[in-house]
Structure formats: structure tokens, C-alpha cells
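Q: I have 159 residues here and want to know how they pack in 3D. Can you give me a structure?
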Amino acid sequence: MTVHRRLADPEATERAGAALWHALSVPLVVHLEGNLGAGKTSLVRGLLRAAGHAGPVPSPTYTLVEPYATEPPVHHLDLYRLGDAEELEFIGLRDLLAAGGALLVEWPARGAGVLPAPDLALRLTVAGTGRDLALDAGSARGRAVLRAWLTEFDVNSKK
């Protein structure tokens, strides 16, 4: 099941993330794909704002993982600087998965062979001043989240 939506501006990208929070069912592995500057971290920022996180939401490019004490917990990974997929073992991937929350992974291809398959894969591409978002469910849980996301995002986009 794949869904496409046009995001007109950064606020729409954050609304897409907020809708994902409201649709969330955990545990959930989400792969976030897109070139540099495509809006992956903006989408995560929207999700975390909807979860009640008021602090900064940086891209974890240098730290590789940024944990958020939301309920359920969210772990934001950026694998752009990962040298080898096996390094995921050293940063505690098993523990992150065992936490049972949402694992949001930017640059998931760099973790191939170690990173679990996504329940939901999101691809952002730059389209003029906006973004195109493709969401693809990879599991039964992902399909349920995607259906809930569609309802949440489409209703809130019309307000």
C-alpha cells in the first residue's frame, strides 16, 4: 500500500509528522528517505511537537541517535555518517528496538543488512518550493498506521 501527498511548504511537512504521531502504533520502524534538505528532520520535528516535546529537534547527523522521552518513546537515527552497518550494534540498535517505541531512521540504506525492514517507509522529494511525500507500508502494523495517518492528515489539511 503506497500513498502520495503533496506538501506545499515546511508547515505542511511538519503537519505530516504530527499526523504520524497521532496515527502511531508501536513498536514501529519508520525509514525516512530523501536527499539532504528534503525535509526528513522537519517531518520528525512535527511528530515530536505533536508528542509534546518542546525542545530543539536537531538532525542527529553527528550523534547518530537522538532519544526522546515521549510516551511512547521515540528514537531518531541519522545514519548518513555511518561507516559500516555493523556499527548499529555499537550504538545499541537492539536496545532501541527493545524499548518498544518508534524508531525513525534517516538514511536507512546505510544500515542495510542490520537494520530491520520498515513498517513504514517515507520518501520525501523536493518539488519546487514544496515536497512530494510517498508513504509505503511494509507490514500489517504499517498499513494500519498508514490508514490512520491518511485520516488524520487529510482532515487536518482541510482546516
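Q: Anything worth noting?
A: The chain is about 35% helix and 25% strand. The beta strands are 2-7, 28-33, 65-68, 74-78, 102-106, 120-127, 130-137.
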